[in-house]
Amino acid sequence: MNPFKIIILFLLINTNLSAQNSKAKHWVLGMELNVVDDDGRRPILAPKNFFNGLNFLPFPTAFSFEYYLKDNFSMELSESVNTYEVGEFVDGASNPKNIFFMALDFNAKYSFNSLYSSLSFSKKINWFDPYIMAGFGVTHRNAIVPTFNGGGGATFWVSKKIGINIQSMGKLSFSDKGSFYFQHLLGVKLKF
Question: With b meaning 16 or more CB within 10 Å and e meaning fewer, what string describes 55-81?
């Protein structure tokens, strides 16, 4: 059986079992600015000029829907759009025209809030919610390619329903038509 199908099957079974045992179910809607860090030229850990390869628009271009199955486990569906300007390096080559970027991702997230709170010497910390995430997605740049996603972030809850989110994620292409890139997000989360 295809490993991708096995992982999806595992996530669906685990989601169903978790949902039956949970009392902390709720939805979170996110609206964020996204910055795509993709210069296409360097190895993953090589040093770089930070501003080379950054692509962003000056308004919210990423939206997410997240469903909490338990206090520390959630599933997220997210969509983001962006543009690469003329001359930017994309997938190892300089592009001659503006390129439309779109990503659609499905990620599992694990929150460390309960672990972090248990290590603190005071009462439970509800305002700080760090997490890690992993999943799969599809990215359209010069071609449509599947990706494996991994990353982390934190939500700073300013009230019981509104939070400020910061997140960074690496996306590794399953195809030789795409390269590794980072996507960084900063925005607002609304819990309902």
Answer: beeeebbbbbebebbbebbbbbebebe
Residue 152, φ and ψ in degrees, nearest 5: -165, 180
123-145 confidence digits (pLDDT tens) = 667 788 999 999 999 999 878 99
pLDDT digits (tens, 9 = 90+) for 64-87: 999 999 778 999 999 999 998 888
Which structural domain range is residue 21 located in? 3-191
CATH number, domain with residue 62: 2.40.160.20
Q: DSSP state, 178?
A: S
Domain count, the chain: 1
Q: How distant, in Å, are the alpha carbons of 165, 176, 178, 179, 186 from that of 147?
A: 23, 11, 9, 10, 21
What is the C-alpha to C-alpha distance for residues 100 and 103, in angstroms, rounded to an integer?
A: 10
